[in-house]
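#struct-pred
JK: can someone run the complex with zinc ion? inputs below
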Amino acid sequence: MCAASLVERRKDRIECSASCGFVNYDNPTPVAAVVVEFEGKIVLAHNRSWPGTFNGLITGFVDHAEGAAECAVREVKEELDLDAGPPTLIGVYPFERMNQIIVGYHVQATGVITLNEELDSYILVPPDACLVWPAGTGLALRDWLRGRGVEPEMIKRP
Ligand SMILES: [Zn+2]
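RT: done, structure tokens with the ligand placed:
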């Protein structure tokens, strides 16, 4: 703000070294993550930019002035071309590695799956066969499965 150098006075908080008062709090970015239930199975998709063959929930950044639930419905339409029913909030989870806050929703979705350019493949997995990773979006999937009486197997993310 004032062109003075920045200093890290404590973890994750970078401040102006002079007196203008600028502080970069490094707040996390909100991301909607959606457990999409389609014909009784969960849609897990592979992002084109990801290495490896693992699959994840449908996710997206919440837009300016958009609610997280609206974002969930929009992302399901954009990424899968499916029509989502009313989203049910699963929970809200920190995802420190990506500096995100994951807002997890479940939706029932209908239509014909057509992937957009962000995704290159998907799998349909019965709820009792889902493997989940122990961070970020995996915690949302875990908690939704637990709500259905399924204790999922946890895996390390590759
Ligand atoms: Zn300054």
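RT: quick notes.
The chain has one domain: 29-154.
The domain at 29-154 is CATH 3.90.79.10 (Nucleoside Triphosphate Pyrophosphohydrolase).
JK: thanks, will look after standup
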